[in-house]
Design a protein that fits this description.
mainly alpha; two-stranded antiparallel sheet; 17 helices; 70% helix
């Protein structure tokens, strides 16, 4: 392993730190603002609390884990179920409950260790569930892009495919800094072309104030919303463990032991709870920023703190949400198509990395059932909770995982937890 350019504990000089922090901001910006755009809330609110949440996470992890907490995609699907039926305030109640669950999981792991996770959440199940998140959201992206009803005009098609082409080129052809900001490149290009074609205007951006206060939203208690959100919490829990291990591998440290996954869970739990209380979305460690660590070998947690501070500062610039709101549907839809596809592919990669043997009947049943339940449109009402898509798949995966463990226990073939 090559030595880091800047180790975890180092603090670069301020000009260098600012430049490196902006690099992380660009890497996560496109993905993290897509979540509030899809949910119809103020992107500035999400940027503010992602920044605050990241600082909380870094402090609780004793400045040993270089990570940024961005908007979690796992909560989009359940939130899109909750918001039309109960309102965004009810979704916030679910987000708060999710944060509390993370805090409780941190306390549980501190007492019991983490061995039970592989029993409740088998590798075959988690890879398939992550894939379902992307596949389930694909129709939403198509609708945003204006491609869902078969009546798209040539201008819309041109904007969508040009935006996609620029992002694909950024990911596959560009080198260095440009390669880590393909989403930003696609949005800027698509937006400019849309303006030239009369599909977008700068007027709202020009009219917006330079300084404004992010919108705060009030949560409203909803047991139904909480029940719908809980399965997404399970998915992000396992995702965090995976990101923690990958980050440890990149920086050459066993982060599971020092500072320990329980500290990361506690930081994420407090951050998500705070976000829900004031109207922001749940957050999670971002693969985009982990990728930047791997590419640059700059591991300084001070750089990630700088990214958080910049996010907080720009959340008070009124022109930022105005600019985001001015981006036309075909552009954001094209971004969503690619990002949701990447999520689905990431789930498949998890199956491959875990060496999932689909000739094993258990793995075959888990993966097959998760895919069918996740993307078939099946809906199951349990009490006041309407489970569908990723939520239903997650519940089924947990039930099957426990069933297989009980069968092995009865046969005396369990390896322990």
């Amino acid at each position: 392993m090559e030595p880091p350019v800047i180790p975890v504990e180092d603090r670069p000089p301020l000009p260098i730190l600012a430049a490196l922090s902006l690099q992380h901001l660009f890497a996560m910006f496109g993905a993290t603002i897509l979540v509030p755009v899809l949910l119809g809330v103020d992107p500035a609110t999400v940027l503010l609390f992602n920044g605050i949440g990241t600082l909380i996470f870094l402090v609780l992890c004793q400045w040993k884990v270089p990570a940024y907490l961005g908007s979690s995609f796992a909560f989009i699907s359940p939130a899109l179920i909750i918001i039309p039926a109960y309102g965004y305030g009810a979704a916030l109640a679910g987000f708060i409950a999710s944060g509390i669950i993370f805090i409780l999981l941190a306390l549980l792991i501190r007492k019991t260790g983490i061995g039970w996770v592989s029993v409740v959440f088998p590798d075959a199940a988690m890879g398939a569930i992550v894939a379902v998140i992307g596949l389930e959201l694909a129709p939403t992206a198509a609708a945003m892009a204006g491609l869902a009803n078969g009546s798209s005009d040539l201008t819309t098609l041109g904007i969508v495919f040009l935006t996609l082409a620029v992002m694909i080129a950024g990911m596959t052809v560009c080198r260095g800094f440009l390669r880590i900001i393909p989403v930003i490149l696609g949005i800027v290009t698509g937006f400019m072309v849309a303006v030239l074609l009369g599909r977008a205007v700068f007027d709202p951006v020009i009219a917006a104030p330079w300084i404004s206060v992010p919108t705060l939203y009030t949560p409203t208690l909803s047991i139904a919303a909480i029940a719908i959100i809980i399965p997404a919490t399970v998915v992000v829990f396992v995702e965090l463990i995976g990101h923690f291990k990958v980050t440890g591998t990149i920086i050459g440290r066993d982060l599971m032991q020092d500072p320990g996954i329980e500290r990361a869970l506690l930081g994420k739990g407090i951050s998500t709870t705070l976000s829900g209380l004031f109207g922001s979305t749940p957050n999670t460690t971002y693969a985009e920023n982990i990728g930047v660590l791997a590419i640059t070998r700059v591991y300084s947690t001070q750089v990630l703190a700088g990214t958080a501070v910049i996010a907080i500062l720009i959340s008070f610039c009124g022109k930022i949400p105005a600019a985001i709101g001015a981006i036309p549907g075909p552009v954001m839809g094209a971004v969503a198509l690619l990002l949701f596809g990447v999520i689905a592919a990431s789930g498949i990669r998890m199956l491959i990395d875990a060496r999932t043997d689909l000739s094993d009947p258990r793995n075959l049943v888990l993966v097959s059932l998760i895919f069918v339940l996740g993307i078939s449109g099946i809906s199951v009402t349990v009490g006041i909770a309407d489970l569908r898509g990723m939520a239903l798949s997650t519940v089924a995966a947990v039930v099957l995982g426990l069933f297989f463990y009980i069968v092995d226990w009865c046969r005396g073939t369990t390896k322990g937890i």
